[in-house]
Every structure is written in C-alpha cells, then in structure tokens.
Amino acid sequence: MHKNITIIVAEDYETMSHKAAEIFAESITANPNKSFGFATGATPVGMYKNLVKLHKQENLDFSGVSTFNLDEYHPLAPDSPQSYRQFMYDNLFSHVNINKNNIFIPDSKAADPHMEAKEYEAKIENKGGIEMQILGIGLNGHIGFNEPNETFDANTRYTPLAKATIESNARHFASAEDVPTNAITMGIRSIMLARHILLLANGVNKATILRDALLGAITPLVPASILQLHQSVTVVIDKEAATLL
Ligand code: GLP
Description:
This protein is of the alpha/beta class. It has helices at residues 13-30, 45-58, 84-91, 113-126, 163-169, 188-192, 207-215, and strands spanning 5-10, 35-38, 66-69, 71-74, 103-104, 130-135, 157-160, 182-185, 196-201, 233-238. The N and C termini lie close together (9 Å). 44% of the residues are buried. 2-amino-2-deoxy-6-O-phosphono-alpha-D-glucopyranose binds next to helix 5.
C-alpha cells in the first residue's frame, strides 16, 4: 500500500460515517475559511447526518466555508428530487450554518453546459482550491462522473454517463430512461488538485473495485486508481468493503 494512503476500516456503516465526519469536522475547524468538496450518493449520507449532529451539539461552524460539489446531472430541473443540489440541501446544507452564497454546484439547467463547466473550474481556483474533497466510488471505479477511459488530466467538463452508471443510478429514478444521459463533473485533474482526499465506501459490492483502485494498476480504466498518486488520501470504509484489501 502506498504511504500516502491511510486506510481506516470501521466495524459497520454507522461507525464509518461517524469516523469520516470526525475527520472532516477536524479539517473544517482547522480551516474555517477554506473550500471543501462534497459528494452525493448513498455512501456519504451517514457522514452528513453526523456533521449535522456535530453542528447542532458541538457548534461545528460552517459559516466561513465554501462548498463545491463534484458533479450534477444535466439537463435536470434543479428542484427535481434526483438533482444533486436537492440532495445536498436535504442531507446537509439546510441543517447547518453554511452561507448560501458560498455553495457551488454545477448548474443542471445551464444553457451552455461546456461554459458552465469552464466557469466552475475557475471558481474553484478563485476560491483558493479545495482543502478536503469527499469522494465515493462507483462500481466501475468512477469518481464524480469521471467514467472509465477518461483521461487523467481532464478538467471540469460536460460529459456523457456510462451505460453502467445510468443503469446503477436508475434506482433513484422512475426508470433508466429517466436518468439524464449527461452530467457536469469535476475532472480527475480538478479532484487531484484538492489538498486532501477523503474516500468513503461501504458494503460488499464495493470490495472488488476498492481492491482494483487501491492495489491495482494505475489506469484510466479504473478512474479512482489515480488516487494512488495523490499526496494525501484517507480511505474510510466498513469491514465488508475491506474484505479484499
Ligand atoms: C454516483 C456519483 C458519485 C458517487 C457514486 C457512488 O453516480 N456521481 O459521485 O460516488 O455514484 O454512489 P453510491 O454512494 O450511491 O454508491
């Protein structure tokens, strides 16, 4: 295992979520005016619950932080229950003292999604880059919506979704046909520029891809494998996801 990767194996999802929230909260407390990168998906929901708890019970202060989400479907109504904007408000932003002017999520309705992606990248840079980026991992190794075979030097961009991703995300929509075919995502390069990465995964169905990503060859076929070259990665996973490491 690479020296730059710390792996924390938690007993179960609850413990994993608690530990991840603790690490993230420490970073916010140490860097109260910096930018932080957020992810959606089922994986970080427990961590967000714990962050809300830390805010309510221990005054964890979000008032100075800026937030950048990894990705967003396009096109999709921003208030659609499946939009990542809606997800973030429901799970975190509505429950903590984040300044709404400092919340950045790619615009799911942007008339020119290519331009939106370019401007998003520039905003991250203008806000000083990302201190800590939360990541989940897709079953095909995607991070954000960087699908297999995307180049490692990609910036934030408008991109088609892989068939496997549309099928996997269909569970959140009425049917696979309702899943948007495209998204705006931070690129691998944008993600690699974050000063720290906090990767979460749980459940036995993530065990194989975690092994490939963390111990396998560094290849665009497994987008998350590039994290082996990042200077500071903390992986917090449950026992089931850790079975092949
Ligand atoms: C989605 C998101 C990713 C997320 C991944 C895993 O498609 N774009 O950011 O990490 O899939 O999702 P889950 O946590 O639900 O397994």
